[in-house]
Design brief:
It is a single chain. By secondary structure, this protein is an alpha+beta fold. It folds into 3 domains: 16-148 and 332-360, Rossmann fold; 163-226, Dna Ligase, domain 1 (2-Layer Sandwich), CATH 3.30.1490.20; 230-328, ATP-grasp fold, B domain (D-amino Acid Aminotransferase, Chain A, domain 1, 2-Layer Sandwich). Helix content is 29%, strand content 24%. It has helices at residues 32-42, 78-86, 119-132, 141-146, 170-179, 208-216, 280-295, 321-328, 332-349, 356-360, and strands at 16-21, 46-57, 63-68, 92-96, 102-105, 136-138, 164-167, 184-188, 198-200, 221-225, 234-240, 243-244, 246-247, 250-251, 253-257, 272-275, 300-306, 309-314. The strands form 4 sheets. A 6-stranded mixed beta sheet has the order 4-3-2-1-5-6. Strands 11, 12, 15, 16, 17 and 18 form a 6-stranded antiparallel beta sheet that branches. Strand 17 (300-306) and strand 18 form a beta hairpin. Helix 1 (32-42) packs across helix 9. The longest helix is centred in the last third of the chain and has 18 residues, at 332-349.
């Protein structure tokens, strides 16, 4: 499967689906958001792409947004779909956010750090208003606010996490590194995609001050013990409703690695991917973190696993569905859209009395 066009089963009851993104101009055709949106359109649903700066709180107390709207249903692939939305004459509509059935929050806060630091929190606040109007908002916007940086990971059981120090103090960082025999990873508390991530070894301590400066200039640093298995990359395992995403016996899972000598395996940092099955350690870790993911309404998440530890949990813009589909030939994105259809049905069966947090991982 390469994301090409094909005949999709239409849902019995079309739904209105909104995706909150950073900005339509910065979307890329290999993003999970684009794959999900195109699959939803192909299944007969209406889709709206809402940038973080597109929300409107009207004088009558209703929430609207300026959104980019697909003009067709027969897109060849993700690139064709995105080209339509990014075209100079793309259709932009003023939509009622409250009339949506589902609002998926797919913006990356790290992209807004420098130019628009106000944007991520503003998007979450508008999303909370939508949830009060019984729009199903995923992931749950209240708990996403709590997860605005990597300290969220420290609320998961200690057993799943590497030993970690979070500080702005340079001497504290150096002391932690010394206590771990000069082997550590330093990265920003707020960030994604492998930006400003450094692996410290006894061989490169001459550059330690520069590494620390590069991280703490934007805020707190996370310093973690180095896991030797990381030299072989990491495992990305996607979860849905708090559990590993599995369709037709295949997991949405792959190994990310970098054979260029760069320690980062993130795809945006030049990493590569290969098909991988989650091993016993990965499934055990997924089982341990599931209760909190479910309790917090984290509908779609990405677990980054190295050996028997979890390096991170991505709950803002977990990606990789398109890569998992291309490696396995399994329609994971169609499964996600069908699951959203199911949630909308449950909301109506219960006369909109279920809370957003309940519906998020139900």
């Amino acid at each position: 499967m390469n994301g090409s066009s094909r005949r999709e089963p239409h849902a019995a009851h079309p739904i209105k689906l909104g995706f909150v993104i950073n900005d339509i101009a910065t979307e890329k055709d290999n993003y999970t958001t684009v794959r999900l949106a195109r699959r939803a359109v192909a299944r007969g649903h209406s889709v709206a792409m809402i940038g973080l700066g597109g929300f409107i709180y009207d004088s009558d107390g209703t929430v609207h947004a300026h959104a980019h709207v697909p003009r067709r249903t027969d897109y060849r692939d993700d690139a064709d779909f995105l080209a339509d939305l990014q075209a100079a004459d793309a259709e932009v509509a003023r939509i009622s956010v409250e009339a949506l059935d589902v609002l998926m929050l797919r913006s990356d806060p790290a992209e807004e750090l420098n130019e628009r630091p106000w944007a991520p929190n503003s998007g979450l606040l508008f999303a909370q208003l939508a949830a009060l109007r019984h729009v199903i908002v995923l992931n749950d916007p209240t708990h996403l606010t709590d997860a605005s940086n990597k300290t969220y990971f420290q609320h998961f059981p200690e057993e799943v996490r590497p030993v970690t120090c979070i500080t702005l103090d340079v001497e504290e960082i150096k002391s932690f590194i010394a206590a771990h025999d000069g082997h550590c990873v330093i990265k920003p508390l707020q960030g994604s995609g492998g930006q400003s991530v450094f692996v410290v070894t006894p061989d490169n301590t001459a550059n330690l001050n520069q590494m620390i400066d590069a991280v703490v200039r934007d805020g707190y640093a996370i310093v973690q013990e180095y896991l030797p298995e990381a030299r072989n990359g990491d495992l990305r395992l996607l979860t849905l409703n708090g559990r590993p995403l599995q369709v037709d016996g295949k997991y949405a899972c792959f190994r990310r690695y970098n054979d260029s000598g760069d320690a980062r395996s993130n795809i945006t940092a030049g990493g590569k991917v290969e098909l991988a099955e989650p091993d016993a350690d990965a499934l055990r870790l997924a089982g341990i973190v599931a209760p909190k993911l479910i309790r917090d309404g984290m509908y779609l998440a990405g677990l980054d696993i190295v050996g028997d530890k979890m390096m991170e949990i991505n709950v803002d813009t977990p990606g990789g569905i398109n890569m998992a589909e291309e490696l396995t030939g399994v329609d994971f994105s169609g499964h996600v859209i069908a699951d959203l259809e199911r949630k909308v049905g449950l909301r109506e069966h219960y006369n909109r009395t279920l809370s957003n947090n309940e519906l998020a991982t139900m």
